[in-house]
Design brief:
This protein is mainly alpha-helical. It has five helices and two strands; from the N terminus they run ββααααα.
């Protein structure tokens, strides 16, 4: 009797594939995260909190230059609220699920790059890389899980290609 279920590239102990209720949990968890984080971007507390990440990012630093700290935070907040809306609508309209998941993936790909660009991520007193600081290192590391959830949701949102080549 086999104790694992093999999938392309991975061997896992779980025997069932993702079903609608599993995907719903991922979707609504992501919606909550994006709603909360997006709404917080409209506060000066959050704008100043994310300022070091943005300022050191080769991808996003231009936002501060053009829009200032609070303006950059507003723009990011609008994108996050838009992602939440697309994911929520995606519960009913498949294309919005794919768009929302893709927006979520883009978000977490960018925030994961902050691990390389933000000072203080790697903890020198613990030997540097791979030891990470509580803040900002461990704060950023959670985005790896959120990226994985986004990838699963995107994969489930796309039409199946099975039988497409027959």
């Amino acid at each position: 009797m086999s104790m694992s279920h093999d999938t392309p590239g991975f061997s896992v102990a779980e025997h069932s594939s993702a079903n609608a209720s599993n995907l719903a949990l991922l979707r609504w968890a992501l919606v909550i995260v994006f709603l909360w984080f997006g709404a917080m971007k409209f506060t000066s507390y959050e704008a100043n909190g994310i300022a070091p990440f943005i300022a050191h990012s080769p991808i996003l630093a231009w936002l501060h230059t053009i829009f200032g700290i609070q303006g950059a935070s507003y723009i990011i907040g609008l994108l996050e609220l838009g992602t939440a809306a697309a994911l929520a609508i995606g519960a009913f309209v498949a294309i919005f699920s794919a768009v929302g998941a893709a927006m979520s993936i883009a978000t977490y790909l960018v925030t994961i790059t902050f691990m390389l660009s933000t000072p203080g991520v790697f903890e020198p007193t613990a030997g540097g890389f791979p030891a990470i600081s509580a803040l900002p290192g461990q704060f950023l590391l959670k985005d790896v899980v959120l990226l994985a959830a986004s990838l699963v949701l995107l994969a489930a949102s796309l039409p199946s290609r099975r039988g497409a080549s027959t």
